[in-house]
Amino acid sequence: MLVRFRSPGSVGVSLFFWALVLSAGLCSELKVRVRLADGRITEELLEADSERDSITLEYRQADGTLITFLADFKQDVKIFRALILGELERGQSQYQALCFITRLSHNEIISSESMARLRQKNPHTIRTAEEKRPTETLSMNVAVNVTLAWQLSTLIYNTCSLAHDGVYTREADMRHWLDTGIEGSVFETLPQAVEVPGLQSCRSVKDLWQSCSCSYSVRLEWYPCLLKYCRNKDSLGHSAPYKCGIKSCSKGYDFTYYTPHKQLCLWEEEA
Ligand SMILES: *[C@@H]1O[C@H](CO)[C@@H](O)[C@H](O)[C@H]1NC(C)=O
Question: For residue 22, what pLDDT is reported?
Answer without folding.
Answer: 52
